Write a sequence for this structure.
């Protein structure tokens, strides 16, 4: 296990290095950030001075080297848009809002998709199953932004149900639901499909012959075995949410999170901030990946991870 | 990586074993591909959701590609004097069936032109990403060894980072346009094809007919494309269809955020973005494109599940065994 984990950590570092390198190279191609920082009236000398100050006059390799060596010490430089503020500090300020959304959304997805998928699998082909399958397909086919807009329209305008801006619950539930809905659709389908396979398997027949109660067969035996494909997809959903899809929800609900910050930093050509955001997201993605592997091992002791 | 050569070998061997096992599971089953394709349409008639989806998609594709002939107006034809005309169900006239938007453009015409752009982007991305992924997967699986390790590590790095975030940054660099949207979505989407292809190749490589082909002196390229590639048809078709649905959603999302196509180009996502401006006063401008996107993606998904049942003997058996006549599908394909 220890050896395996260290191997995964190395692999994770490769991912982080790959992604940060890609973003570093790509951001250097966006254009001169100096023109975004200084007013149009700035003289050529002022521009050159700022360029030298930020280090953009050096060769790209030397820039990349100092970026990497600073990144190792978790020093990502200062944001150029939020004047003279530590980039990591800014990310740290926006991150909790996004994490809140992701955690809430993923809890909603988990709590809804497991029972729905299991119920659908009990009688495949019957009315309830068809209904749940259709509902899941609609869920995964609806664009997130559209769902968010519809919720916004019905709650805050048509029925005046929610005053956006006050109340922690109404404030969080609808954005979280919007984030979760496509995930609920996909996860329900996976739970359903895995459960149908498990319920048709030999060990379930054996358990039934032995007289194990139906509730125990479904809830303990089959569900646990169906967990492997579920965990794979669930981890993927968390990663997907972290790596950008909260952004859509944040845009619709005016949610001041990391996605909003990312769009702002791209628009303002704030290189240091973009790099910091990507680095932080990459670290989170790698950690989630490792957590998934540990979860496999806990769920199914037969899984060999060496 | 810290693994030794034996580790790498056994990991690879494990993949081969697994692929072979999956292949063996299919052996001796009653349905061969040829037999199942003859039943293609009888299967479609039995699957009501699939049939309905096929008809709907046919209408959408026809309306979209015949837009220059059929559309009552151009996509950006109009002026402030024709703005915000209500649709037919709200005391509108037949001149503008779905009304006009805040710019004075006819919504129905824009919908047709927009659907054309969106469908074209979907087709282009599926073609580019599919081609790239399949070729790399073929090479990785067939060559094996170091080539395989490096190509799959590349796939792993990119898969570990499914990035709307990366997509946004790349689009900012390339400048928002149809070409850059196609490029970025292909860049983000080729890995599934590579993984799937590699798996199929690993299994096929051990089969006697491939060994026979090698023995009589076929070149690697011929073995790969003539002997191994046909094995991919069924899974590739289903995957491509599901990816097509995913791409339509991705394009809509990028354009909705204002980072996809730009005026005067129009896609379904651009229309959704336009709907944001007057959202509370004219919600139909957001709802109409939203509903159309949802319906297209839904129909494509139903179609994919029908294809899966037609092509995949195991899925057919499961269906008959469980007595499940639903259009049910698993979504492993979209991962």
């Amino acid at each position: 296990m220890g050896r395996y984990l260290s191997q995964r950590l190395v692999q994770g570092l490769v991912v982080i290095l790959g992604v940060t390198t890609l973003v570093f190279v790509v951001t250097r191609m966006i254009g001169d950030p100096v023109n975004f920082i200084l007013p149009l009236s700035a003289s050529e000398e002022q521009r050159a001075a700022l360029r030298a100050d930020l280090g953009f006059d050096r060769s790209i390799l030397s820039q990349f080297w100092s970026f990497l060596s600073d990144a190792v010490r978790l020093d990502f430089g200062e944001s150029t848009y939020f004047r003279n503020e530590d980039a990591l500090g800014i990310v740290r300020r926006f991150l909790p809002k996004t994490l809140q959304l992701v955690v809430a959304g993923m809890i909603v997805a988990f709590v809804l998709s497991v029972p729905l998928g299991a119920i659908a699998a009990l009688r495949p082909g019957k009315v309830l199953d068809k209904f749940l399958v259709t509902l899941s397909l609609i869920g995964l086919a609806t664009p997130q932004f559209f769902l968010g807009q519809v919720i916004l329209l019905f709650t805050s305008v048509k029925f005046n149900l929610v005053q956006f801006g006050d109340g922690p619950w109404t404030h969080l539930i609808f954005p979280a639901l919007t984030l979760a809905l496509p995930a609920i659709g996909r996860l329900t389908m996976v739970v359903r499909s895995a459960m149908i396979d498990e319920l048709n398997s030999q060990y379930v027949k054996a358990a039934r012959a032995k007289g194990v109660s139906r509730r125990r067969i479904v809830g303990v035996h089959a569900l646990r075995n169906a967990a492997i494909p579920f965990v794979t997809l669930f981890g993927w959903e968390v990663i997907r949410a972290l790596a950008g899809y909260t952004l859509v929800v944040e845009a619709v609900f005016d949610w001041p999170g990391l996605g909003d910050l990312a769009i702002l930093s791209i628009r303002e050509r704030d290189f240091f901030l973009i790099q910091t955001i990507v680095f932080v997201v990459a670290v989170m993605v790698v950690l989630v990946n490792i957590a998934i592997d540990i979860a496999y091992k806990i769920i199914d002791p037969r899984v060999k991870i060496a | 990586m810290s693994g030794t050569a034996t580790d790498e070998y056994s990991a690879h061997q494990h993949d081969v074993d697994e692929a072979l096992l999956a292949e063996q599971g299919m052996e001796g089953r009653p349905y061969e591909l040829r037999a199942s394709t003859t039943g293609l349409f009888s299967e479609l008639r039995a699957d009501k959701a699939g049939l309905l989806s096929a008809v709907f998609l046919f209408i959408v594709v026809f309306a979209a590609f015949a837009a220059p002939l059929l559309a009552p107006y151009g996509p950006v034809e109009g002026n402030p004097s024709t703005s915000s005309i209500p649709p037919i169900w709200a005391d509108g006239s037949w001149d503008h069936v779905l009304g006009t938007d805040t710019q004075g453009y006819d919504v129905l015409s824009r919908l047709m032109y927009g659907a054309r752009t969106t469908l074209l982007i979907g087709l282009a991305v599926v073609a580019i990403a599919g081609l790239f992924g399949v070729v790399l997967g073929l090479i990785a699986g067939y060559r094996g060894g170091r080539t395989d390790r490096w190509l799959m590590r590349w796939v792993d790095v990119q898969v570990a980072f499914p990035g709307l975030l990366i997509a946004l940054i790349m689009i900012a660099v390339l400048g928002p346009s149809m070409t850059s949207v196609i490029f970025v979505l292909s860049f983000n989407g080729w890995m599934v094809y590579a993984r799937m292809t590699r798996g199929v190749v690993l299994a096929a490589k051990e089969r006697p007919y491939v060994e026979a082909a090698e023995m009589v002196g076929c070149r690697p390229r011929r073995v790969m494309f003539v002997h191994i590639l046909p094995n991919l048809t069924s899974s590739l078709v289903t995957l491509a269809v599901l990816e097509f649905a995913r791409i339509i959603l991705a394009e809509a999302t990028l354009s909705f955020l204002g980072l996809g196509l730009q005026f005067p180009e129009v896609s379904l996502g651009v229309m959704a973005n336009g709907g944001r401006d007057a959202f509370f006063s004219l919600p139909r401008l957001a709802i109409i494109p939203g509903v159309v996107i949802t319906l297209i993606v839904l129909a494509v998904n139903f179609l994919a599940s029908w294809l899966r049942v037609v092509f995949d003997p195991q899925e057919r058996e499961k269906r008959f065994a469980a007595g499940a006549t639903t259009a049910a599908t698993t979504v492993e394909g979209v991962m």
In short: Chain A is about 80% helix and 0% strand. Chain A touches chain B through 67 residues (CB under 8 Å). The longest helix of chain A spans residues 87-122. The two ends of chain A are 7 Å apart (CA to CA).
